[in-house]
Design brief:
The protein is of the alpha+beta class and about 200 residues long. It has 5 helices and 4 strands; from the N terminus they run ααβαβαβαβ. Strands 1-4-2-3 form a 4-stranded mixed beta sheet. The protein starts with a helix and ends with a strand.
């Protein structure tokens, strides 16, 4: 009887030990679901950041394009205004000077004369008197002929660049209408000239 109790006691203790072991074992949590959710959230955040960056870049490009368009319009407007002012200034030139005993149009006068020719070509009702002048040196008859040659040289240039001959009236005053009185080279230089006078359709 005593022997039986001794055998039962170790078996009971073994059973108790196994039960306590089973009670103290901690189950490892399953983290695979949490990791998948975190990865999905990270991907969504990255996609949103990329979309926001693309939208910002598109807006920036649109603004830059708008700025360039505005700048281009401003530049074109300024260029147009400058051209208009340039043409107006050239049309304002109405007196063209000549060398001594010369009836050749000066190179410096060509652009202004072209502006007048273009204006006449666009305004068929415009009429222009082209008057030639000379300084007092030489005979009266010679200076009349010289003034006429100068006026005809200008008129020929105008018609060659678009004006109609019917719009032009060529006149020579010779030495009769000096711009500056005197017998100096300075006065003579001012008197060797052709003047343009619009009798109709003045610009």
């Amino acid at each position: 009887m005593f022997m039986t109790k001794q055998k039962v006691l170790p078996v009971a203790l073994l059973g108790l030990s196994l039960g306590l072991g089973a009670c103290t074992t901690t189950k490892t949590p399953d983290t695979s679901a949490s990791t998948a959710q975190a990865d999905e959230a990270a991907r969504a955040a990255a996609a949103k950041a990329a979309a926001d960056a693309a939208a910002a870049a598109q807006t920036s490009a649109a603004n830059a394009g708008s700025d360039l368009s505005s700048q281009s319009l401003n530049d074109a407007s300024k260029a147009g205004a400058n051209l208009a002012n340039d043409v107006a200034a050239r049309l304002g030139l109405r007196v063209f000077y000549f060398g001594y005993d010369d009836a050749s149009v000066q190179g410096a006068d060509l652009q202004a004369l072209k502006a007048h020719a273009a204006y006449l070509a666009k305004n068929s009702a415009a009429r222009l008197q082209v008057s030639g002048h000379a300084d007092e040196r030489g005979t009266r008859e010679y200076n009349m002929a010289l003034g006429e040659r100068r006026a005809k040289a200008v008129a020929s240039f105008l018609t060659a660049n678009g004006a109609k001959s019917s719009q032009l009236e060529v006149v020579s005053y010779g030495e009769e209408k000096p711009a500056v009185a005197g017998e100096s080279e300075e006065a003579w230089a001012k008197n060797r000239r052709v003047e343009l006078d619009y009798t109709a359709g003045k610009p």
